[in-house]
Design brief:
The complex is a heterodimer. Chain A is of the alpha/beta class. Chain A has helices at 42-49, 74-79, 96-107, 112-125, 141-153, 171-186, 198-204, 222-227, 232-241, and strands spanning 4-13, 16-26, 31-35, 57-62, 65-66, 81-84, 159-163, 190-194, 207-212, 215-220. In chain A, β4 (57-62) and β5 (65-66) form a beta hairpin. The chains are: A alpha/beta, B mainly alpha. The complex binds adenosine-5'-diphosphate and magnesium ion (MG). Residues 42-43, 163-164 of chain A line the site of magnesium ion.
Chain lengths: 242, 246
């Protein structure tokens, strides 16, 4: 059984048809890279999976349940799906450690000491444990994004969603974030990554899908996709980002 | 005869009455609230402080209802906020003064009924400040909080409000400054605050109106100036914790 199973997913913003029937299935442990031009619906698609966006038609199954089934608690669902945003969205009024432990303490009711331990361990994993008591504004962009990844991992999610996690970063900080993501991929985390980082895709992705105008128009293994894009629009796109 | 010939005598009289301007005929007692006949600037400040504290909680409630998705709560608060913002404060003061006997069958002391008027009046503005403050936060804050599994209430409580309220501090201080000046309106229904002590002394001494009103102008100004400069310092200190982008 697939971890995520998307069936004929449609979404409209008013009259504007953003997602035009997406069918996609992601296995446990699979790393899926989603690319495509700006405005093609990539963010909208992955945000539908944890219901940050509503959709009007189709179904999304997560771990065997329809995410809109009445017995599915939306907060539980979201705690099983970590998300990392382009703009980090760290909580500026909380320390780095508190950013990571907020959800485990408030959602799971974990006691503070255990949560701090977990938080420090996750911060260690992303290489920021010595900054645990600083505030986000005191960290570089790359460090902030790594904190955001640790925060996403704190609820021990079954799936991690990444929405262009390196697009807002200065070039010299991109690799520190990608390396953390590569580690996660190698540890077997199920990941959906919107990214144009081809090196990352080549190294760890199982599959690349290409979206344009709200449709998935091509999918392939990373090496085939980058070497030998089939569709005219993906050829054009790859030429532009190279 | 020039002004400088009478100035020492006039300012001497001001000096003699300064304690009355500052705290009226206050006397300490051993019973709550441990002071009676508090007047002058002290009464104005007490009115303003109690007013802003009451207005904060009432305004926070109104502001949260204003942005709630519950339509009943939302429209109730819109009517409340708009009705009060469209009403002169002086009228509200009269209104509560004359309403109390009807509602409770006995007159409420002028101090209490003006305090209620101040709380109600200021809470409408605070409600708007709260609404604007919450809406001004980047959308990503709510998304990150909800995305991690926090409920809407938890996200408000732990992520949105702590930031929004901090950002609102300068606006709260602004309201506090306005209210401090507006306490002078309580004069009209007989509350013995700074303005009224000035009028009393003026009636008694007759010749020193000019010096009296200069003095109380300075007193109002000093209080407001201290508040605004404190707020400016606070603003600088807090800016580093603000969420940027979007
Ligand atoms: N809240 C919204 N209201 C209306 N249109 C939107 C909204 N959010 C996104 N869109 C539009 O939907 C399209 C897809 O957006 P998005 O999923 O963010 O694209 P991508 O992530 O691929 O750049 C874009 O054309 C965008 O302008
Ligand atoms: Mg996007």
């Amino acid at each position: 059984m697939a971890m995520i199973e998307v069936n004929d997913l449609h979404k409209w913003y008013g009259d504007f048809h953003v997602l035009k029937g997406i069918n996609e299935s992601v296995e446990q442990g699979e790393v899926l890279v989603i690319c495509g031009p700006s405005g093609s619906g990539k963010s909208t698609f992955i945000r539908c999976i944890n219901r940050l966006e509503e959709y009007q038609k189709g179904t999304i199954m997560f771990d065997g349940r329809d995410i809109h089934a009445p017995e599915v608690n939306i907060n539980t669902l979201r705690s099983e799906i970590g998300i990392v945003f382009q703009q980090f969205n760290l909580y500026p009024h909380l320390t780095v450690l508190k950013n990571v432990t907020l959800a485990p303490v408030k959602v799971k009711g974990m006691d503070k000491k255990a949560a701090d331990e977990l938080g420090l361990q996750l911060l260690h994993r992303v290489g920021i444990h010595d900054q645990a008591h600083k505030y986000p504004a005191e960290l570089s962009g790359g460090q902030q994004q790594r904190v955001a990844i640790a925060r996403g991992l704190a609820m021990e999610p079954k799936v991690m969603l990444f929405d262009e996690p390196t697009s807002a970063l200065d070039p010299e900080m991109i690799n520190e974030v990608l390396n953390v993501m590569k580690d996660l991929a190698r540890e077997g985390k199920t990941m959906l990554c919107v990214t144009h980082e081809m090196g990352f895709a080549r190294e760890v992705a199982d599959r690349v899908i290409f979206m344009d105008y709200g449709e998935v128009i091509e999918q392939n293994t990373p090496s085939e996709f980058f070497k030998n894009p089939q569709h005219e629009r993906s050829q054009q796109f790859l030429k532009e980002i190279l | 005869m020039s002004y400088w010939d009478v100035a020492p005598e006039h300012w001497g009289l001001i000096w003699d009455n300064l304690d009355y301007f500052l705290w009226g005929a206050a006397k300490f007692t051993d019973q709550f609230p441990y002071v009676e006949n508090l007047g002058g600037l002290a009464a104005s400040i007490v009115l303003a402080v109690l007013g802003i504290l009451g207005a904060f909680w009432l305004g926070l409630g109104a502001g949260l209802m204003r942005i709630s998705r519950n339509r009943f709560a939302k429209y109730t608060s819109i009517v409340y906020i708009e009705a009060i913002r469209g009403t002169p404060l002086l009228m509200l003061i009269f209104w509560f003064f004359f309403l109390a006997p009807i509602l409770m069958g006995q007159t409420l002391p002028a101090f209490h009924s003006t305090l209620i008027a101040f709380i109600v009046f200021t809470s409408a503005y605070i409600g708007e400040i709260v609404r604007a403050g919450v809406n001004a936060l980047p959308r990503g804050q709510m998304e990150a909080a909800r995305g991690s599994g926090l409920s809407h209430v938890q996200a408000m409580r732990y992520v949105i409000l702590p930031q929004a309220l901090r950002n609102m501090i300068p606006s709260f201080v602004n309201q506090f400054v306005s209210l401090t000046k507006d306490t002078s309106l309580a004069y009209i229904i007989g509350v013995n605050e700074l303005m009224r002590t000035a009028v009393q002394v003026d009636n008694r001494e007759t010749k020193i109106s000019f010096e009296i009103y200069i003095t109380i102008a300075i007193l109002y100004f000093v209080v407001c100036y201290v508040l605004t400069s404190y707020s400016r310092r606070l603003e600088k200190k807090l800016s580093r914790y603000q969420a940027r982008d979007r």
